[in-house]
Amino acid sequence: MTIEVRNIVKQFGSFRALDNVDLRVETGELMALLGPSGSGKTTLLRIIAGLDWPDSGSVAFDGEDALARGAAERHVGFVFQHYALFRHMSVFENVAFGLRVQPRKIRKTEVEIKKRVGDLLDLVQLGWLADRYPSQLSGGQRQRIALARALAIEPRILLLDEPFGALDAKVRKELRAWLRNLHEEIHVTSIFVTHDQEEALEVANRVVVMDRGKIEQIGSPGDVYEHPASAFVHSFIGESIVLPVDVQGGTVRLGERRLDLVAPASASGPSKLFVRRHDVTVGPSGSGVFEGAVKAVRAFGPMQRADVVLSNGHGDTLIEIDAPRDHSLKVGDRVGLQPQRYRIFADA
Amino acid sequence: MSTLSRKRSLPGFGLTMGLTILWLSLMILIPLAGLFVKTAELSPSAFWATVTAPRTLHALQVSFGLAFAAACINLVAGLVIVWALVRYRFPGRRIFDAVVDIPFALPTAVAGIALTTLFAQKGWLGAPLAALGIKVAFTPLGIFIAMIFIGIPFVVRTVQPVLIDLDVELEEAAECLGASRWQTIRRVILPSLAPAVLTGFALAFARAVGEYGSVIFIAGNLPNVSEIAPLLIVIRLSEFRYADATAIAVVMLIFSFIIIFILNRLQHWAQTRSLAAA
To answer: B43-277 domain in CATH 2.30.260.10?
Structure first.
């Protein structure tokens, strides 16, 4: 099932939650909506589900207008951040809910419901919890039951709102891998919302980066990491060294110091230079675009991390860089820093 | 259950439990024990004769039967009122919210007189009803209405906080799973409210059984027709037949206790089903 979102605008009072959003999701994709809180990602998900209605724009499932239907008729599986399990029902009844509320004509028999719920509980590997109540489960178990419940209606689309947001770090990691495997197994078109970039990059086939109601970039996890389309994406995904620079006629300056870097044609005037920490090569003084003095060195794992004060003519700029463990770095050393890859975006 | 050991580890168990027993004894158990002691003056056969006298039986039937019916009406009406008050924003909502408590605050005699005036043959509501051939004041129907009146706040006030706290996501989840609005209410919302609804029902029922002030004005108090058990007790007292009065009181007490105990168990059952203490 493809999802086609066009020109969606959603306003909450004076706050524009979604500002002309276009998005196309292909059949069988596992897509992540990634952005900080308030970026509109959850609102977009809820509009696709039919839990919220846009002020204007359209949503189509396989070319068919979805806005003409309410959430109950859209056949969309929705998994809530806080699970929203029915507390007065056993795990079995929770999963069976979607089957029991079907119109009498197409409703399954009790035997079929038992079989289907059993299969789903096996799928989420929690068959042994069928008779428990939600309050007796751990967070991770609840989330998997919520997923089984959403899958019971054989949804055409699966939507997950911050599915692992309420779980602790270890369980999150496990469930990430598990969700990806599950998606490979059932292959239903899926979108999940997250503010955790690692989660988005690790789980999704495609990532949509959102900020302030707009889509900043759509691409594969590799794409958005390696080729960020905007300053926002660069700073939001992965850690970056950010330096304020000034671009005049293709010449890049950091303070007084002229940098031997190539600025894109689009950048002019006050801009930001973005470099990934691991893209900086540390060499002897005079060997790079930047000059600096080592302020502090911290060694852990295969890398060592150093604070370097850049000498740029006026004022001092402190940056953090990574260097291989075997590279000798001592406090007070003067070093040259050469960015292997970098991007310059004009200030908005 | 692990809660038992946790309760013990809370400080102040001895003190609070001691005060609880002292207070319940002073305020409730000792006066009630007096009731039983006084009743014991009657021989078993005299006791049996008193409580099975047609007039007594009828009075008990009126009190318990109408209280139960009134509590049922209040359950339905209370749910509707609480739904409107919690789920919708409309002008005057806070005023309506305050109005719900009036039956609590009003002296019951005032309520009784007001209702009697309203439903009397020439009253605002009594006159049109009389034209339809329905007589309210001085009939069991009048008792029923007074009992509804005094029971209104209970279901509303017990269910209101629970409904406010009920997660909207539960309804959204049900909707996404294909449930109609009605199915959502029946299968998700009402079961979640059940413990609170039962508590409210029990309180409304208990209040109506014991109600005296507002009922006696509108009841007409005809023996074997519209006489409530509390009134019969007062009548026996005024005749200095104290043991007879306490005998009826004891029967009321036992009945009430059994019914409230059952409702409490039901409420507990509904609660543990949703909380399912691990």
So the answer is: no
